[in-house]
Amino acid sequence: MTKRTPDSASTMGHGEIPPLPPARWEQLGQRYGNAPSLSLGTSKDIQVGDSVVIVKDDADVDWSNCPEISASSRRLLFSPPWTLTVHRLQGDFFYPTNFPESFAPLAALGQVHLMGKPHRLLPPASATTSRSSTAAPASPAESSAERPEVTGGYDEDWALDPAEVDKLKCPICMLVARNAMAHDCGSVLFCEMCWVKCLAEDSKCPVCRKDGSSIAPAHFERRAILNLMVKCPNNCGESFNLCDKEKHLKDCSARFTLCPLCQEQVPTNELEAHYASNPGKHIMQIMTLLDEVTQLREEVKQLKEQQRFMRAARSLRAQHVQGEVPQEILVQLSGESSSSNQLRGIYGNHGEHNDKVMYRKVDSTASIYFDGQWKIGLHGVDDWVYCHPDDSLPHPPLGEWTSVEGSTDPVPTICSVPQVLQVANASGSMNGRYARAEDFNGKPKFRQVGASGTLQFDDGWKIRREEFSEDSTSYYHPDHAALPPMGDWRTLIGGDFPSVSPVHVPISTASRFLWIQGAGGSGELTNGCYVHIGSSNDKPKYWQMDGAGIIYFAGRWKINHRDSEMGWYYQHPDSSASQPPLDGWSTEGYSGDAEPPPSLHSQHRYSVEGFQLAHPPFLVVKDAGHAPVNGRFAQVGLHEGKPKYQQVDGNSILFFESGLWRLNDEDTTGQRNYDAVEGDFPMPPSQWEHHIIFGTPPSLSWGTSRDVQEGDTVIFAQDDEDADWSNCPEESASGRRLHFSPSMRVTVHRLHGSWFYPTNHREKVAPLAAVGRVLLLGKAHRMMHGTGETPNLSSASPSSIREIPQEVLVQLAVPSPAPDAHRLHGTYRHHGEHNGKVMYQKVDGDATIYFDERWKIGVRGVDDWVYCHPDDSLPHPPLGEWTSVEGSTDPVPTICSVPQVLQVANATGSMNGRYARAEDFNGKPKFRQVGGSGTLHFDDGWKIKAAETSDGLYSHPDVLAVLPPSGEWTLSGSEVPIVLSPVHVPISTAPRFLWVQGAGGSGEATNGWTTEGYMGSAAPPSLHAQQRLSRENLPTTAAAAGVQRVSPQATTAAVSLETPEVTGGYDEDWADPAEVDKLKCPICMLVARNAMAHDCGSVLFCEMCWVKCLAEDSKCPVCRKDGSSIVPAHFERRAILNLMVKCPNNCGESFNLCDKEKHLKDCRALSTTCPLCNVQVPTNELEAHYASNPGKHILQIVALLDEVTQLREEVKQLKEQQGGTSAVILVFATSTSQ
């Protein structure tokens, strides 16, 4: 056996077994006894006290033969790589020192530390195989089995005298001897392999017939043969030594190579000529190659972004082990500075930076990150303002920080925002846990888990039994702190004061909130919002925010209406999911009627937008002069985006229509008996108007337990032990009290004051105060506790839902043969009224949508309409498909509403929020984030970007949509979707946008109008209104100041906005100059743009020329009469747009002026950039450009091919790494319980 050397060890592949001692040994006499047997070490050779390394996850090992004395709960939860010390062995399992009560299988081990060095463990089968394989060392022939066998001599085209070569030939193969061997007879030379084959048949020399064992290598002749001159087999004309043949063939000019574009075999020295011979074919291949490079680059970016999120998840797991890492932190400043408003507020966890957790402000780009020391930056990770010297913590240090050296700015204080608060010592049902929900009045709001209480800031910190209530049982705190104070709470009446304390919740990748929607039958009680607080069986557990329901894992994911894991309404078959699946739930295992099963929707930040509360409160209408409308009303659905209520014991309805809340005594929305006071309130208001016929207006209040009637089915919200029995009816002894628990249903048989007797237990009594919900019209409705107060509308922001859209989009299905069709396609904006109804005008043309007996679309104003719609009942143009002029074959248009504000939810960090309609980009609407630097626009597909110049982080698969698609957007390769939904904004006479210009000093950050009350230096600004976002027509002072959108990551974000102002007429190369003279403007001497005609009728004016002229003189510059009597010259405008012009690119074509933009887009003489050398070339000369210098392009193509190869390999490696890091997240979900 050959001795193992360092070189041989270094060349071994991964997983190979190095040369080892053999299995068979010999006995040397009787002194030492039997010979030993050797085998490779396995997990069965582990001993007590060994330090071992786990290489498998606990979910991937076989537990079938675990010790009988140990229950499943004593199994050790582990993940690789974890180092443990063996405390005790039991069969195929061991007990570690740190966890002596838990056990783990030996099969999960991969390494053992022996003599201070890790050694690999092999499975028993592998060890046996490896040991037996080392018994017989491999022969040289076996070690080179994969190489082609060389059996003969050198067969070359020799460049010397053949007679000189003959004396070096082997007599067996008749070729020049390869690895020449010489016999004692010295007559001839033999090839080494020829001699071996000959001896296998005969042991004598084939020439002299003597013993063949006396043969030796002919070293001198071998060197002579390798120095023989040979000719190139490719016929390139060169000669070289035989030993240099391989080197020459590698660089031979005549060798064939594969064209990297068309895959043809081409001589290497003719490759340039091959490129020049057919440039057209190669252009297509180059474009395909460039597309692949673009796609691969994008894929690499997306995979790296995804890998960043994976690393963040892994970091969260490590941080959880190290200590308390807050999910949110609050930055407070003791004073004011130029940047205080941008830094002060709440920061959410935003992944990691430099291997430590990073936080991003929820409504801006301010960040807290680690870069040598902990820093707070205004714009991402660049311009930091504050720092902290403690670099030992895995999260930003809490407490007071320091500012930039020499700065007088106030120093910030950082504190952790609790995710769950525990309220104790309060009255009745107000005790319990309160989960972090949305923000309210700029501070965190907390909602009670399992009940309807809230803890929020509303002119002071308050704890309320109901969200809209304000009764004597509410608690308040005098300290207007940024976070809920822990102690010293007070109440309006006497009694115990509550205490508030934080509850630690570990960071998890699971969603913070889950909404259950659509559950039916008896499972309807499970609908609503659930918050993640704890865990069950090593997986997240969720509690219902407005009820007693839970979502838990017990073998499968299950949903129950109460806090018990002994039953369920719905379950999901996917037991491997780390958090509750969103779809695919069923009623399997539940015998009752709970169809249909629900769907789940995830949120990382609480928001009710887009969801219906599981148990809405009901309303009580009374005191109306028209008696039929009095009574209890239950919510039955939505109408115009707001709740619709129906009378429980009648046909009356309460609904929102045409901007007002209305009450009608019949189930018809077209009429009403009463109108509420004017206001776009989210819920019915308390004040209603007097009706001249129906008399006294009604009064409205929330339904309470006092509004329960006999025959109602009620649901308890308390346990009988927690209820107040102090005023129990005298005739009922304590033994007659009803025993009940939360979610228990009973039917009211008889009422007795604030008590009732249920139908099934008529001798038992129960308090109405313990009831939480009542079934009305088949649906559970929450009861408000207190005195039946009217709805408090100050706690809710009014919704803005109106019928009339601000913008509409006109689309044509196919290109129309009519010349005017393309002028109709595009966006139309609200443009006043016509015939008493709203009118729209195209933003970049004269086309209008107006009402004239019916709705019409006209190419030029309100004269020549092309399309119409028969529905004349609507106050705005009907949405959907229209019809064309009778007998026309033009395609019919489709009209849809353009949203003005979009809501982005479930995205990463600061990308959530509202996006307002701004300018157009690539012919489609563009949206900019309100309060942030994000954009939503179309750029080779719909994308959402964190900043204008950054790469698209989220995308939508529907690339054909003309508007941003609603619904699920995705981060590429990720399964976590975001949701995009429109926010309705009412039409208003107020301008859509305001530009603030000229603010100076420290006022630049606050944009204040006056300096009244401000002691610093800040020049007041001026404001400029816009209906459409644009930088055009801003004052010169603004331009001089370098006005731009404040975006730290996009200093060139305004490129698409800076359109040059068009002030003169059309300056074109006209096909018929004589026809043009009569249409020229006398001011700019060019053909009139947007032609205007004066009463004198002598000439035409450009619209902008006329406006500028009137600014200096109010008279017509030609006839000197009053200039106010000027009107658009519609006929002449059409004539000008139909004038023939020549192509400015000199392609030789002529076309109508109105078609110029379309022609220039596809003009064959248009210059384009060569994708290889970046030279500007006319489009129709691109093939000739390729043929002109193929050598230069070959180098670019080779570089491009190398990049494709590298990108493919990088994508492959990233995907492999992604598979490994994905497991880390699953491990984290199961290991947090340890």
Automatic annotation (TrEMBL):
Domain RING-type: 170-209, 1081-1120
Region (Disordered): 1-21, 120-156, 579-602
Keywords assigned: Coiled coil, Metal-binding, Zinc, Zinc-finger
Cross-referenced Gene3D superfamilies: Zinc/RING finger domain, C3HC4 (zinc finger) (3.30.40.10)
Pfam family, one: zf-C3HC4_3
PROSITE patterns in the record: ZF_RING_2
Coiled-coil annotated spans: 286-313
Compositional bias per record (Low complexity), positions renumbered to this chain: 123-143
Protein's UniProt name: RING-type domain-containing protein
Record organism: Durusdinium trenchii
